[in-house]
Amino acid sequence: MSKQTGWPIGVWAAEVTHPYWAFTEAGYQVDIASPDGGTTQFDGFSDPEDASKYAAFDILTKPPTGKYLVEGKMD
């Protein structure tokens, strides 16, 4: 719960799930933790199935396909 607004809040799902999958697929063990411990709450708006449909078009949830600034392989 936000102390400023009184609204329920949580972490943006993609900010946890995207790095989680990248690290675990690379072979790292990942522990999800918070300063106070307990359950990690996701912000409802970060769920593309949420009734608000906010995340259905969010850049973090569905990033656009970009182009390279410089063509070619970088070493």
List the helices and strands and how they pair.
Blueprint: H1 13-25
Provide a descriptive summary of the structure in words:
This protein has 75 residues and is mainly alpha-helical. The chain is extended. 17% of the residues lie in helices and 0% in strands. The N and C termini lie far apart (45 Å). The chain has one helix and no strands. The protein has a domain of 45 residues.
Query: Per DSSP, what share of the residues sits in E-state strands of 2 or more residues?
Result: under 5%
Taking the sheet with the most strands, its summary is:
none
Q: Fraction of residues in helices?
A: 10-25%
Shape: extended
What is the rounded Rg?
16 Å
Query: Termini separation (Å)?
Result: 45 Å
How many H/I helices?
A: 1
Number of strands: 0
Poorly predicted runs are: none
Class per helix and strand makeup: mainly alpha
- The succession of helices and strands, N to C, reads H
What structural keywords apply?
extended; 1 helix; mainly alpha
Give a nutshell description of this structure.
This protein is mainly α and 75 residues long. The protein is built from 1 helix and no strands.
